[in-house]
Each structure stands twice: as structure tokens, then as C-alpha cells.
Write a structure and sequence with these properties.
It contains 17 helices and 12 strands. By secondary structure, it is an alpha+beta fold.
Length: about 450
């Protein structure tokens, strides 16, 4: 085991270390003296996306997660010993565990009072080192549970999340358009052979990042136990995901959802994520969000009374894409007015504001907001997010100290140029409303916003 990176996050007062283990696994240690909790994650670079590459039924990763998390294994031979181990009493803390499957990650995690770190590690070790000869024992039980989970969801043709993914990513990634847990047919189809194939390809040391957020540094004995455990795992190779460029072109789609009262609206612009941290871009992103949120609140809410809330965010869909998106909701009767007011805001309002004297004090105040931070809320996923960056080959180190001089030197002209750069990316418009698709899209076609991008 060797330490490869070491830095302090001054924004949160957390000291981070990254270790490369002899097994090929990686360990993120985040020492957070302001917390009394220990949070541990075992994240594997596998998820819904990788089933497609392995030609396995949709939902295989999620099914395996169900069996491994919470069923008896090599260490805890039956359900009673497994459940009793997690219980607390007057002399020891209770531990909580769970697992999750996403597009790109299969994660097993737990949290507890910091005095129970060793017990939590032991429990998670046992979940990961799962005896494949016991898959048959629990497969039908978990199949029934997962089918119940599936039946509790909207039909996929009624799911806004699935429809959104298909609209924006479906032409690039043909396998999107299903729930991560699969569909009725695929859940019924999954076999122990499928689960074994997935386990052998994904649950390997090379494909693992362990992330631990803890109030104090790990002891030599604790580090040794982690090293020894990962040495037991099979060797493999890091499962990589080759991201594809999402073409930015003007398009729009209105999804009908009868049980809503208003029209949800979003503008989406996609850019590939930068594998290296760009501190100036990070600072600009903050100010970009702030100016749009400021004027949305001032113009569309306070002056025009068209919305309750709205603003700009920057999201990362999980496939190495950065999404600059604006979103809001508007009453049906105000939809056409809202579209034209939004056009004016983006076409003229933001530039007029940033080139005016009025914005001088606002900009200075936002610089102050950025530099003089308040306490950050406890984030249980803090170390997990660093680990995900390692798995996805992104730079895991973000040093807020590098941002402060950039924020001090930033000008309104810098922000305006950045706004224009992002605005030059052709957007995709997404609507969710109780109205028929044609009604919403026809109203959109009459707007100045539509005419700006229609060629």
C-alpha cells in the first residue's frame, strides 16, 4: 500500500489521502474532525451500462446487489446472526448498511458512530466476498422482492426520467430507456449464471474504490485489514466506459403527465467533462448560476409574477457530460408569456444587467459570498464522490484555495463572455405538463425562443 495523494480541503476542513493498494484497489481516506460518524463505501465500476456490454439481461447488476446486501454469506451463516451483528446496545453502536446500483456504479455502504468502524468494515467485507454457491438459495426470494419494487413504479412509458434519458441520450446510447432494476421480462429471466458472470467481471480488486470518511486517521491495523481483504478479491481490470459526444442541436419534446398541474420547463446544453480540474471554469460556473438565478428571481418572479422558483444549475448525468440547464415551472395560462419573457432575459436582460452600473455592487457581493464561505453541512457522500472520480478517471483533487485568487480577479466582462460562450451551445428544450404533447409544442413554436433557434 502506498499513499499517492494528500491534500486538505480548506472549505470543509477535511484532510484527504488516496492510497493504491497492492491488490490494485484504491482507498480514499477523508479525515473529518467535525464529525462523529463513520461512513464507508465499497464502490465498483459497474452498473446498468455494463450489463449491455456483457450481453446480460437488464437489471442483472441491481439483482446481484439485492442478493449480496442483506443475505447470509460466508461469515454470517444465517439471517439471525447477520441481523444481530448490526444491532447496538449500551456498550456498542448500531450500524446501518445499504446498497445501490446506478448507471455506472455498484455500491455497498454503511454508516455508524465512529467507535464501530471495525464492525462496519467486517460486515461490508462479508457482503463483498459473497459465496456464489449461495446464489441459488436466495434468487427466487429476491426475484419476488424486485418484481414488487418494479410493479410499484410508473410504467416506463409514463416515467419522466426514462423519457428524458431516451430523448437526450437514446440516439447515442441505444440501451437507455429502462429502469436500472430492469423490466418484468428481464427480471424473470435473470439466472444464477448471469449473476455469476456479472460478479466475476465486476467484483474485482482492480475495479474497486473504498471510501472512508471518519473523524480521525485510520490506524495501521485498520489499513492492514483493508489491504488483506482486498488481496482476497479476484484480479481483473478496471471496467472503463467510453463516453460518446452528445450532439448539441436544437430540439424539443413535450412529455404528457396527467397528474401535474403546471408546465415544467428546462433548457439543456451538454459539454464533455474535463478530466482535469479547471479552477477558473469552476469559479465561472458559480457566478454563471448566480446571475441567472438573480435575474430569474427579480424579473420572472418579483416583477412579472410568472413563477415561484427557477434558476440555473450545472449537472453531471454520469456519462462524462456536464449539463448546463435552466429549469422552472409555470402555470399553463402563463406559458406563452413566460417563454417570451425568458427570451428577453437571455437575449438582452443578462447582458444589459452585467454591463450596467447597477450590477457593480451585486457582483462585488457575489465575490464576497464565494470567498467568505459559511459552514458546510455534513455530506456523507463526500469521500464517495472522490472515489467516483478515481473510478471515472477524473481528477479527484479540488483545492478551494486555488479558487480564491481567481474569484478576486474575476470581472463582469469575464462572466459575460462565459455566458455568451454557454449560450452559443444549441439547446434541447424539455417540457412536462398535463396537456397533450402537440398543444405544448405548438405553443412553443409560436414563441420568440423557438424562432431564435429554428433554422
Amino acid at each position: 500500500m502506498r499513499s499517492t495523494l494528500h491534500w486538505t480541503d480548506t472549505n470543509r476542513n477535511i484532510t484527504n489521502k488516496i492510497y493504491e493498494l497492492n491488490s490494485g484497489a484504491k482507498l480514499v481516506e477523508a479525515v473529518n474532525p467535525g464529525s462523529i460518524e463513520t461512513y464507508i463505501s465499497f464502490a465498483f465500476g459497474g452498473g446498468y451500462i455494463h450489463e449491455h456490454a456483457m450481453r446480460l439481461p437488464i437489471g442483472t447488476a441491481h439483482f446481484l446487489e439485492h442478493i449480496m446486501a442483506g443475505n447470509p454469506n460466508k461469515v454470517f451463516k444465517n439471517k439471525k446472526t447477520l441481523d444481530d451483528f448490526k444491532k447496538g446496545n449500551l456498550d456498542k453502536a448500531k450500524i446501518w448498511t445499504n446498497a445501490t446500483t446506478s448507471w455506472r456504479l455498484l455500491e455497498f455502504y454503511g454508516y455508524t458512530h465512529h467507535t464501530a468502524l471495525k464492525r462496519l468494515l467486517k460486515f461490508l467485507f462479508a457482503e463483498i466476498d459473497y459465496p456464489l454457491d449461495r446464489l441459488e438459495e436466495f434468487i427466487e426470494k429476491e426475484r419476488g422482492i424486485i418484481l414488487s419494487e418494479y410493479y410499484g413504479k410508473d410504467k416506463k412509458e409514463k416515467s419522466t426520467g426514462i423519457a428524458y434519458d431516451k430523448f437526450f441520450f437514446g440516439s447515442t446510447y441505444g440501451f437507455v430507456g429502462e429502469y436500472v432494476l430492469g423490466n418484468e421480462d428481464s427480471i424473470k429471466q435473470i439466472s444464477t449464471a448471469d449473476l455469476t458472470t456479472y460478479y466475476n467481471n465486476v467484483i474485482t480488486a482492480d475495479n474497486l474504490v473504498i471510501s472512508i470518511q471518519h473523524p480521525k486517521p485510520l490506524t495501521k491495523a485498520e489499513l492492514k485489514s483493508i489491504e488483506e481483504f482486498t488481496n482476497k478479491l479476484a484480479k481483473g481490470k478496471l471496467i472503463t466506459f467510453k463516453a460518446k459526444k452528445i450532439p448539441n442541436k436544437f430540439k424539443y419534446y413535450a412529455f404528457q403527465k396527467e397528474d401535474t398541474n403546471d408546465i415544467f420547463f428546462s433548457v439543456n446544453r451538454f459539454e464533455p467533462t474535463n478530466p482535469k480540474v479547471d479552477y477558473k471554469e469552476s469559479v465561472l460556473d458559480f457566478f454563471y448560476n448566480r446571475v441567472i438565478s438573480e435575474l430569474t428571481f427579480k424579473k420572472l418572479r418579483e416583477e412579472k409574477n410568472l413563477i415561484y422558483a427557477g434558476g440555473n444549475n450545472i449537472g453531471y448525468p454520469g456519462i462524462k457530460l456536464k449539463n448546463y440547464y435552466f429549469n422552472s415551472s409555470v402555470r399553463i395560462e402563463n406559458f406563452k408569456i413566460f417563454l417570451d419573457e425568458l427570451y428577453e432575459l437571455f437575449e438582452h436582460g443578462i447582458e444589459d444587467f452585467l454591463t450596467s452600473k447597477e450590477s457593480d455592487s451585486w457582483f462585488l457581493s457575489e465575490q464576497s459570498t464565494y470567498i467568505y464561505r459559511f459552514n458546510q453541512n455534513y455530506d456523507p457522500d463526500y469521500a464517495v464522490n472522490i472515489g467516483a472520480d478515481l473510478l471515472f478517471k477524473q481528477d479527484p483533487v479540488f483545492d478551494f484555495n486555488n479558487c480564491v485568487p481567481i474569484a478576486k480577479d474575476l470581472t463582469k466582462k469575464d462572466l459575460l463572455n462565459y455566458f455568451k460562450k454557454i449560450s452559443s451551445i444549441e439547446p434541447g428544450f424539455w417540457f412536462v405538463s398535463p396537456l397533450p404533447k402537440e398543444d405544448v409544442e405548438n405553443a412553443f413554436k409560436e414563441s420568440k425562443l423557438f424562432k431564435k433557434y429554428q433554422k
